[in-house]
């Protein structure tokens, strides 16, 4: 080791050590900035807070959500989407924009309240603009055809399992339902979700390790 007369490191070595610290700090800052930008514009992570998407997604499971895809196209029926629901979802019982639909009605809610909620939900798209939707035994009837939904939990005979009168999903909106049909607060009660309120499409789960996979 080269030392100066006082027994310390030489100025050249001190400069080299300082440079390494600055370089390390720069790498850390860059990595944090990159992670922030990815979360802000590309991919975001979410933790599943309830059992409304069982058996597909369990409480505590974590998913990756593609945010940029919303700029290039609309989600399709069957996609799992993260979004802000209408403000009608903030009260119990949920409030539909059409007072004669939703809770206690023959029709599922067709009209959202105009205000957007601050809550973040994750559900499955079961209908898009122009689709005619009714519910039979917890299963979606889309444009007159009973959908094959082997991924859902049975609804049973509880409230919300049957809305026999069809409603039409407004253009530019999406009808959302949880896979746990007997225990999901969804579009049946507070209506369709405008595209502007969508955050992104879930494309993979990364926690717990035994549930790692893509949708």
Automatic annotation (TrEMBL):
Pfam assignment, any one: Peptidase_S26
GO BP annotations listed: signal peptide processing
Domain of life: Bacteria
Membrane topology: Single-pass type II membrane protein
Keyword Hydrolase: yes
Active site positions, chain numbering: 52, 123
E.C. code: 3.4.21.89
MF terms in GO: serine-type endopeptidase activity; signal peptidase activity
Peptidase S26 domain mapped to chain residues: 22-207
Stretches of the chain forming a coiled coil according to its record: none
InterPro entries xref list: LexA/Signal_pep-like_sf (IPR036286), Pept_S26A_signal_pept_1 (IPR000223), Pept_S26A_signal_pept_1_CS (IPR019758), Pept_S26A_signal_pept_1_Lys-AS (IPR019757), Pept_S26A_signal_pept_1_Ser-AS (IPR019756), Peptidase_S26 (IPR019533)
Transmembrane region(s): 21-42
Reactions catalysed, as given in the entry: Cleavage of hydrophobic, N-terminal signal or leader sequences from secreted and periplasmic proteins
Subcellular location: Cell membrane; Membrane
Main subcellular location: membrane
Keywords from the named record: Hydrolase, Membrane, Protease, Transmembrane, Transmembrane helix
Family: Belongs to the peptidase S26 family.
Protein name (Swiss-Prot/TrEMBL): Signal peptidase I
């Amino acid at each position: 080791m080269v030392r100066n007369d006082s027994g310390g490191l030489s100025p050249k070595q001190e400069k080299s050590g300082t440079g390494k610290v600055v370089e390390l700090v720069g790498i850390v800052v860059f990595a944090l900035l990159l992670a922030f930008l990815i979360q802000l514009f590309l991919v975001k992570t979410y933790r599943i807070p309830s059992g409304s998407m069982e058996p597909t997604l369990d409480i505590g499971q974590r998913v990756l959500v593609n945010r940029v895809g919303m700029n290039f196209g609309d989600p399709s029926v069957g996609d799992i989407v993260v979004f802000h629901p209408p403000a009608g979802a903030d009260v119990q019982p949920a409030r539909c924009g059409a007072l004669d639909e939703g809770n206690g009605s023959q029709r599922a809610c067709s009209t959202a309240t105009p205000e957007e909620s601050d809550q973040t939900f994750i559900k499955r798209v079961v209908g898009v603009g122009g689709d005619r939707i009714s519910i039979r035994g917890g299963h979606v009837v889309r444009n007159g055809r009973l959908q094959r939904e082997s991924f859902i939990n049975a609804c049973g005979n509880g409230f919300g399992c049957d809305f026999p009168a069809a409603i039409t999903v407004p253009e530019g909106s999406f009808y959302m339902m949880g896979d746990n049909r007997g225990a999901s607060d969804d579009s049946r009660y507070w209506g369709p979700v405008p595209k502007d309120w969508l955050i992104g499409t879930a494309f993979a789960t990364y926690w717990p390790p035994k549930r790692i996979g893509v949708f």
